[in-house]
Structure prediction request, 117 residues.
Amino acid sequence: MPSYVDELSDDRGRVIKALQSLIDEEEEIVHDLTDQLVEYREQLDRAVIRTMIYRNLYGPNQGLTVMAEKDAQDAMSPVNETTLRLDRETEILRVFRETIKQVEEGSPLSIALGSFI
Prediction:
């Protein structure tokens, strides 16, 4: 009796349908992360500009300047984290797309998956 994985792998239509659903979901994730990154970068831009102005206006060691620098550092964290996640999710999307392309061209799922190892 074939396993579920064997049964699924033998049904090209089901494999393609599942891969397309994964692609659609991943595209949504990448889109959302891209939007978030734009927003985080805008926040970081404002924090950096504020810091530059405070540094010029009050000097580098004044309380307002130091607080503005900390705000800028805090604003950098979501930019870095989101950029890393976006890179990872974009790579996953690329693999999903390459896998569906190979399956649509006739490669068995096991062969298509093996090309990424």
Notes: The chain has a mean pLDDT of 94. The chain has one domain: 12-105. DSSP finds four helices and no strands in the chain.
